[in-house]
């Protein structure tokens, strides 16, 4: 089905422009995928790679520029920036992915149920979603981490997951509402399908594509949020290095060396950009193929 | 319908303030310890417990706090003894100025970009802007802030590395001290603004009355200025309103990086000083401001677009 629609679309529009667009996107998306792959691989294998210990203050001369000993230079305590950035990627990726996973699963479920059952369940769920949405975004995460007095990964994940819970519930509910009115759902109901079957077999597959592409963009946002929290010293506690905390520490010494700020900031920029590009590409494809579903 | 909205709004405000209030109470450790330090005398501790209403149950404490809060009393900071309302009042101006200046910059950049793109969709500058906007969307504001700070404040020394100049001292110095942080905040918005306006403009430019205008022989710039821009601005106005609301709590990082004495900075300082009364007041005020601005945008939207009013 999907294939036929795409082919027809390609035939409709001017072939030259279509080809150019595809190739241009191809390079950007491919480099994004490669970059994400590299960062993830480095983060997973950080313990095995021949890196300095991220807390080792004797890795090099403090605030050194990149050398053959320290490929990306060192920070104000003489710790290796490459090693710290790779270990920092662990925090960034783990927090970004698990926060969005948590909010997508919980918010998706609540949104589906709210859109299907309606009535009181819907109004209560929406009220709580609105309360969450009423907090200015970063302030909610800042307060949760500050108030909970703990700097564990779980706290930070929770704080950031809550940021995305409200929007997820609202969007999934809206998608569910528009799906629940369609003939195949009525048909399933008429055939005597249980609510559970309707939610998981009829509604969920139709909500999934939009939810997943939203989650993709949310991962980038969650990583930015983690960086912001870490910059304010409100993310995962030292000694685990985080990109945000590295930037905050580097900013104090930026008049003497750029690298302690530049390296983590560059890593974060490239990673977030890569995720955004992939998300943009997926969304574009979905809109084109959307009519065929 | 309108009354129902107000009713819901009050409900949300109550829930938000109660959530904030409970968070403070759920803190591990004794609040009195963090306020007075561990060496305070027993009498002082009891007095402090009483002052903070800590000897009462949570709902009662919330009741006391709410009764004071609606009368404009958010308590005194335990650190500085300054009333929280007064402290917030001194800082709200900085944040507001920052938000307004950054919105002005964002619109000044986004509108021309959108117009140029919409006149010739698919042209080389449309594609260039599209690429630039994607990069801007992916760049966190605080990274831009750090980059601007590093280049212009530290390396080039064109701007002070810290401090805020009040407008009354020197209007020029005031704008100068807020320029870099505003640019950092503005760049985050440009992409969204420009994309929304571009999409709306493209739709408008295909309307019959625009073709009539073309047939009359008006130039592109006349068509855009006189006929197309206004009916296309609705989405942008809404988005800008919502964004301004969101920025109330979103300037935290930028204020922190540029050491500006705004509301965000106040909140972070309260956290670092474990000044819970000040923190609670700040969070509630920011949240209430956010909710009220969003509500105002909603109303404005109805005023601007008659179709929504009827529905």
Tally of distinct domains of chain A: 1
Structural class category of chain B: mainly alpha
Radius of gyration of chain A: 23 Å
In CATH, the architecture of the largest domain in chain B is: Orthogonal Bundle
Q: Write the CATH homologous superfamily of the largest domain in chain B.
A: MetI-like
> Unreliable segments of chain B (pLDDT under 50, ≥5 consecutive)?
none
Q: What is the mean pLDDT of chain B?
A: 79
The best one-word shape of chain A is: elongated
List the quaternary state of the chains. Answer: heterodimer
Helix content of chain B: over 70%
Q: The CATH topology of the largest domain in chain B, please?
A: MetI-like fold
Sheet having the most strands of chain A: none
* Relevant CATH superfamily of chain A: MetI-like
What's the helix count of chain A? Answer: 10
User: Radius of gyration of chain B, rounded?
Assistant: 24 Å
Principal-axis shape of chain B equals: elongated
Which pair of protein chains has the largest interface, and what are the residue counts? Answer: A-B, 39 and 46 residues
At the first level of CATH, the class of chain A is: Mainly Alpha
**Order of helices and strands of chain A, N to C?**
HHHHHHHHHH
What is the CATH C-level name of the largest domain in chain B?
A: Mainly Alpha
Q: In total, how many beta strands of chain B? A: 0
